[in-house]
Specification:
Layout lengths: L3 E9 L2 E6 L2 E9 L2 H10 L4 E6 H6 L5 H10 L4 E5 L5 H9 L4 E4 L1 H5 L1 H11 L4 E8 L2 E4 L4 E6 H9 L5 E6 L11 H10 L4 E5 L5 H9 L4 E4 L1 H4 L5 H8 L6
Parallel strand pairs: 1-4, 1-12, 4-5, 5-6, 6-7, 7-10, 10-11, 11-12
Antiparallel strand pairs: 1-2, 2-3, 7-8, 8-9
Helix pairs in contact: 1-3
C-alpha cells in the first residue's frame, strides 16, 4: 500500500467533533481535548494531521487558534495542515505562527483568485494546499453553504498552471456518511492531472475503502469519522503500509 494516511481533527468550540455532510446541526463531539487526540495519533505512528477549524469556516476567519497551539505544543514533531476560515494573509500568518506547517485554502481561491495567487508566490506551493469542496461536480465555498459555477477540473487546471501541486478534494455528498469515498471522481482528477498530489477526503468507512483508493492510484487520503467510530483498524493499516506512508 502506497497511499499516504492522514487522520483528521475537526474543531468546534475547541472540541474534537465530526459533522455529517457539513451540517452544523448534525454534530457529534468525540473528545474535549484535541491535543490528547493528536497525541494518540502520534503514538500510533502518524506524522501528519489534518486540522479543520469549523467555527472559522462558518465565521470566515480563524477561530480555534488556541486548539491548534495546544496540539503543536503537545506534538511538536507533528506536521499539521490547517484549514477553515482562512480568508486573509493575517489568518495565514496566525496559523503558521501557532504551529501549522501548511494551510488549506478553498473559498478565497474561488472568489479572489489573484489574492490566492499572490499567496502562492509569498508562501510557496509546498505550504499552501488548494481546497476543492465538490457538490455534483461543482466547487462549493464558505463552509459548503454556497455553490459556485466552477467545474472542478476547470478550477484545478487554472491553479495547476500557476504551480499548485497539493489539492485536498472533498466530495460533500460523501462527507461523514461512511458510505465509501468518491473514487470515480478522484480517478477522473488523477487521469487529467497525473502529477497532482491529490488528497481524497470524505466517505471513508473502513480499511477496504482506503485499499480501493490506493489501488486507484490516489496519493493520499484523509479519514476522520470512521476512525472515531471504530470502523478503521489502525494496526492493520500501519502494518500494510510498513510505516512508510503514514501521514
Amino acid at each position: 500500500m502506497n497511499i499516504e494516511l492522514i487522520p483528521a481533527i475537526d474543531l468546534i468550540e475547541g472540541q474534537c467533533v465530526r459533522l455529517t455532510q457539513g451540517d452544523y446541526n448534525r454534530k457529534k463531539v468525540y473528545a474535549e481535548s484535541p491535543a490528547d487526540v493528536a497525541r494518540q495519533f502520534v503514538d500510533m505512528g502518524f506524522r501528519r494531521l489534518h486540522v479543520v477549524d469549523l467555527d472559522g469556516a462558518k465565521s470566515k476567519h480563524v477561530v480555534n487558534i488556541a486548539a491548534l497551539e495546544a496540539i503543536t505544543k503537545v506534538c511538536p514533531t507533528l506536521e499539521i495542515d490547517f484549514g477553515g476560515g482562512i480568508k486573509s494573509e493575517g489568518d495565514i500568518r496566525l496559523a503558521f505562527e501557532h504551529g501549522a506547517s501548511m494551510v488549506t485554502i478553498g473559498s478565497v481561491a474561488v472568489t479572489q483568485p489573484e489574492l490566492f495567487i499572490s499567496w502562492l508566490k509569498t508562501y510557496g506551493t509546498d505550504r499552501l494546499i488548494l481546497g476543492a469542496d465538490v457538490r455534483n461536480g461543482m466547487v462549493s465555498i464558505n463552509g459548503w453553504k454556497e455553490d459556485s459555477n466552477l467545474d472542478l477540473l476547470t478550477f484545478l487546471k487554472a491553479y495547476i498552471e500557476k504551480g499548485v501541486r497539493n489539492v485536498l478534494c472533498t466530495d460533500i455528498s460523501k462527507d461523514g456518511m461512511m458510505q465509501g469515498p468518491a473514487i470515480e471522481l478522484y480517478k477522473k482528477v488523477m487521469h487529467s492531472y497525473p502529477a497532482l498530489h491529490l488528497i481524497a477526503s470524505g466517505g471513508v468507512s473502513c480499511n477496504e475503502d482506503i485499499a480501493r483508493l490506493d489501488a486507484a492510484g490516489i496519493p493520499a487520503v484523509v479519514f476522520g469519522k470512521a476512525f472515531y467510530e471504530g470502523k478503521i483498524d489502525i494496526t492493520q493499516l500501519t502494518r500494510t503500509n510498513h510505516g512508510q506512508r503514514l501521514g
